[in-house]
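[scheduler] slot 2 assigned
[scheduler] job type: sequence-to-structure, two independent chains
[scheduler] chain ordering preserved from manifest
[runner] begin chain α
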Amino acid sequence: MSLDDYKVVLYRNQPDGWVAEVPSVPGCYALMNTRAEARSELERVFAMIEAEYLHMGYGVIRGLQIFPGSVQPPWRSVND
């Protein structure tokens, strides 16, 4: 899987800057000065989150399908 397999949303962060995010992956967003910088940083953030998911044994990121019924990251239990 790569970032290209996900819906990426880019929008202006008022008063300046840009936000890039993957809505289906909690915490996968970047805030930068330009649209290009936001997209580039989002790729790094996505890679870090994907590495964490793999390290925790969750396989590739598939949005919220990894932990159905919850918006908590997979490394947190509901009881935390």
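[runner] end chain α
[runner] begin chain β
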Amino acid sequence: MLQIQGLPHACRRLTIKHIRTKPYTPQTTARPNSFIQTMLREWALQPNSWVFRQLLLPKWQHRYNWHLLPASIDKHQSADSA
């Protein structure tokens, strides 16, 4: 853990309460990152024209939002049904 020399003394002198924050957890951004990676892989990087991809976007979004289960949900359901 990172400690700054003199920090406790400075906080007492200035009557400041030193509060520790929770460490960064990458789980909070897992869903958006999954969406971005899926979109790049399945839609954005396809060798089609930009106009063609624009026409396909609404269909792709529907498929992503309604027919693709996140891996964690799929694993959870598989465990329950076993």
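[runner] end chain β
[qc] chain β: The mean pLDDT is 75.
[scheduler] slot 2 released
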